[in-house]
Amino acid sequence: MLELAAPQSIWSIRFKALRQERIAMFGVFVLALLALACFSVEWLEQLCGLTGVETDLLARFEPPSSLHWLGTDEAGRDELMRLLRGGRVSLSIGLIAALGSSLIGIVIGACAGYFRGAFDSILMRFTDFMMSLPSLPLLIILAALDLTKLGFSADFVRSGDAGYWRIVVILIVLGWTGVARLMRASTLALNSSDFVLAAKAQGASTLRILSVHVIPNAISPVIVATTLAMGRIILVESALSFLGVGIQPPSTSWGSILNNAQELLISDPPLAIYPGLIILISVVAINFIGDGLQRAFDPRSVGRN
Amino acid sequence: MIRFISWRVAGLVLVLLIKSFVIFTLIGLMPGDPIDLLMSANPNMMPEDVAKLRAIYGVDEPLLSRYASWLFNALQGDFGFSRIQHRPVLDIVIPALGNTIILTGTAFILSTVIAISLGTLAAIHRGGWVDRFISLLAFLGISVPGFWLGLIFIYVFAVKFGVLPAGGMPRADQPYAPVAYLVLPCLTLVLIEIGGLTRYARSAMIEVLSQDHIRTARAKGLSKKRIIWKHALRNAMIPIMTIIALGFGHLLSGATLIETMFGWRGMGRLIYESIMGNDYNLALVCLLFTTTMVLIGSLIADFSYSLLDPRIRLQGGRS
Amino acid sequence: MTAPSQTQIGNEVLKKPLLEIAELTIRFSSRAGMFKRGPDIQAVTQASLTIQPGETLALVGESGSGKTTLVRSILDLVPITKGVISFHGARTDQMTQQERREMRQRVQFIFQDPFGSLNPRLTVRDLIAEPLVVHRMGTSVERAARVDLVMKQVGLPNEYASRYPHQFSGGQRQRIAIARALVSSPELIIADEHLSALDVSIQSQILNLLTDLKTQLGVSYLLVSHDLNAVHHLADRVAVMYLGRIVEAASKDLVFTQPSHPYTVALMQSMPKLGAGKRIPGQALRGEIPSPLAPPSGCAFHPRCSRATAHCQKAVPVLRHAALGRQIACHHPLEV
What is the nearest CA distance from C164 to chain A, expressed in angstroms? Predict the structure, then answer.
C-alpha cells in the first residue's frame, strides 16, 4: 500500500506540521533576527562606530537620531547597542537555564516513572516540596547568598562570570520540577507498552531501554515545555535584575537596564519603555513557537493505519 | 473527614519544620553574620571582644544547635529582634502581613472572577472573534514582564496625568484618597496573574462543555444559560480550584515584586528589604509566614476538592 | 520431586524437553490505594507443560484464563510465585546471568498488538536488528546481512528496511515482529495472540508464513490463542487452560476429535467442521468465565459444567496422565 512512499520518521512528520504553523514560524523568524542582532553586537558597534559600553557624559539622554536610532541613555551610551548587549545575556540565560533544567527534569522524571516504587514516591515528594516553595523570594535569597561561605574564592565571587552563572544555576535548581512531572507521566504511560516489554524480554539493559525506547517516545511534551520555559525564565531573570539581585553592573541584561527605571520615568520615559518592549517581543515570539510546537506535536496527528 | 483533616495538618506541620530548617540554613549562608556587621559598625573592636561576642551569641555553634535554639524560642513566640529596625520581629511582620492581605486579597478576588468569566466566555464562543480576542489578551498577559506594566502605569497615571500616586502607603499629607494608593499595585498584580488563569479556565471550560452529559442536557433542550451555570460550571470547578491553589503561591511571589516597586509596605517588600539588609531574623520569619500561607492555601484547595468531588470523599479522603 | 514428565510416561523417545514448566503458580496482589493491598488474584495455578524441540504447543482458553500471564513469566516479564521453569533442563531460578542472557536469545516473543510492540521511532532495520544488538551478535556487516535474510524469509521487500512502523499495515507490522523474532535464530518462539489484532484475510497469510517457517527452520512454537482455526493449522499438541489451570493437554488430533474434558468438549462444539470423527453429544458452554478474584470452589469449571456433581464442588481435580499421552484434570471426564 505505501510501497513507493519515502521513509518518513515521526520527527519529520512533526517538523512538517510545525512549518505549517504560520504564527510559530513568524515567531521563529523574529527570534532568529533578534538573536542574530544580539550576538553580533560587537561587530555592529564597530560597523556603526557606536558603543553600548563606554560612557560619554556629554551625550546623555539624547533623543533618537540617525546616528543613535534609539537615542542615548543616562551615561551617554547608545541605547540600541546597550539593548543588544543586554539581549545577549538575557537570551543566553534563557536558553541555557531552560535546557539545563529540562535535562535534570528528564533524568529525574524518567527514573521516577521507570523504577517506580519507593524511589518514585521519594522523588515525587521532593518535587512537590520544591514546587510549593514561593519562587521569587527563594530566588532572591539564593541570589543574595554569600558564595565564599560555600567555599568559593573571593575573587571568583566578584567576577562578572560568577554573577552570570549564579543566576543560571539558581534558575535551573528551581526550574526542573515541571519537566520532571511531565517526563514521569509519559514514562509511566510507556511502561506498559509492548515495545518496552519486548525490549525487557530481549534482556536489554536499563540504560538502553531508557535511552532508545522510553525517552525518545516520551520527550514531545518536554520539548514544548522547554520552549515555554525559556520565555518564563527570561521574565524571571529580568524581574530579578530589575530588583537588583540578578545580573549586576558592569554586565547588562534587559532587566538590569531597568534597574533605575523609576527615575528614568521622569528624566527620559522612552528609556524605560524600550527594554520592556523588547522583552515582550522576545517572550511573545517564544510563546508563539511553543504554542505552535504543541499543536504540531499533538500525537493525534500521527495516525495509525 | 476528621482523619483527612488531621492527616493533612500533620503533613503541613512536618513540611513547615523541614522548610524552616532549609530556610534557616540558607539565611545562614547570606553574607556576613551578626558579629561581622557589629564589627563594621565599630572598627575599634579587638579580636578578643569579637571572639567573646561570638561565644555569647552562639554564632560559632554548629548549624543544628543554632536551629534548635531558634526553634525553641520561636515555639514560645519569641522570634527575635530585627537588626535594622531594632524592634521585635513580630511587631514588624504582623502589620506587614495585613497590608499584603489587603493587596493580594483584592487582586486574588478580582483576577479569579475576571479570569473565570473571560475563560467561560471564550469557551462558549469558541473559535469566534470573542474567543480569539480574549485568547490574544491572555497570551499577551503571560508574555509581558509584570514590572514593566507597572512602570507604564506609573508613567501614565502618576507622572503624566498625576491622578494616582506613584507608590507608597496612604498618607495624610497628600491629595490622594487612601484607596488611590491601592489602585496601581493591585491593577498590575491582577494583570500579571490574569493571563495564565484565563487560559486555564478557558481550556477547563472547553473540556467540560464537550463532555457527554452536557451534550445530553443540550439535547434535552435545556436553555443554554442554565446548562452553563448549573452543570458546566460545577464540573469545571475542580480544575479551576487547582489553578487557584497554584495561583495563590504565584500571587505571593508577584506581590514581592509589586510591593517592592510601589513601596507598598507588605510582606513581599519586607522579604526583599530584609534579605538585602542582611536582617536574618526578619527574613527568616517573613519567609516562613509566606510559605505557611501558601501551604494553608493548598490545604484549603484540597479540602474543597473533597467537598466538590464526592468520589474523593468516599474513598476516605486519600489525597 | 515433580510429577513424572511426559517423556517418562508415554512411550516417547527419551529426549530432554526444550522447555519444561512445572507446578507454576502466579499470584498478584491488586492495589486498591496507595498503601492498601487489595485481594490476591491467582492468575495461574499449578500449571505444568512441556515443549519438545521442534514441537508446536498451542495454549488455548478464553480471555482471563491466565494464558498470557503464564507465557510472559517464561521470560521473567511477570514474577513467579511458585513452581519451576526449566530450559534445556536448567532451572531458570538457578541460572547465571550468562545463562539467562542466552535463554533470552534463544526464546523470542511475539506480542499481540503489531503496532504497540514496535518502537515508533526506530526504522524497520533497527527494529529487526535489536536482538542482535542486545546480544552482541555479529559485526555490523553480518547483522545487516542477517536482517536482509529474515526480511526475505517473512516476505518483506528490502526497501522497507529504512521506513517506520506507522507507514505499514497491521499485517506487514506483524511480519516485522516475526522477522525480529527470527533474527537471533531462536529455538522457541512464543506467540501471544499474535493474530487476533489482524483482519481475517491477513490472518491466513501470516498463518501460512508461520507454517512455512516451521517446516523450513524447525523452530518450536508456543502459541497462545483463542482462535481454534489457527491452532488446528499450526499445533502439534494442545493444552487447554481454564481460570489459571491446565485442564487438558494432548495431541492436536485427540483434542479436536476426541476431547475429554467437558470444557474442551464445549470449545470444540463451536468448531464442528474441525472435529472429524464421532460427534459428541451436545454440550453448549453456558455462562461466562468467572472473575479470578472470586474463583468457584473445587473444580473451577463446575458452575458451567453439565457433568458436575457435588464432589466437583468440593475437590479440585488434579492434572493426571491418561491413555494416549493425554493429561486431564477432571473428576468426570468423557470416556474416549
Answer: 6
pLDDT tens digits, A218-250: 888 899 999 999 999 999 999 999 988 888 877
Determine the distance from the C-alpha atom of residue C46 to the mean position of all C-alpha atoms in its chain, rounded to a whole number: 16
| Grid cell listed for C111 | 506480542
Give me the residues paired with residue C190 across strands: C109, C222
Can you tell me which residue has the cell 516513572? A113
CB–CB of B256 and A231 under 8 A?
no
B72 CB-contact burial (10 Å; exposed 0-12 / middle 13-18 / buried 19+): exposed
Which residue of chain C comes nearest to A192, CA vs CA?
A: C116
The span from the CA of A178 to the CA of A52, in Å, is: 37
- The DSSP secondary structure of A31-60, one letter per residue, reads HHHHHHHHHTHHHHHHHHT--SSS--GGGT
* Entry pTM: 0.82
- Residue numbers of C between 214 and 253 with CB closer than 8 Å to B: none
Question: Neighbours of A (≥3 Cβ pairs closer than 8 A)?
Answer: B, C
Radius of gyration of chain B (CA): 24
Q: Which helix (H) or strand (E) holds C247?
A: strand C245-251
CB contact under 8 A, C34 and B315: no
Q: What is the CATH number of domain B93-313?
A: 1.10.3720.10
The low-confidence residues of chain A, meaning pLDDT below 50, are 1-2, 301-305
Q: Which part of chain B is CATH 1.10.3720.10? A: 93-313
In A, which residues are within 8 Å of B149 by CB distance? 276
For C86-101, the pLDDT digits (tens) are: 998 888 888 898 889 9
Q: Do A141 and B146 touch (CB under 8 A)?
A: no
Asked if residue C216 has pLDDT above 80, the reply is yes
The pLDDT tens digits for C279-304 are 455 556 667 778 777 788 888 888 88
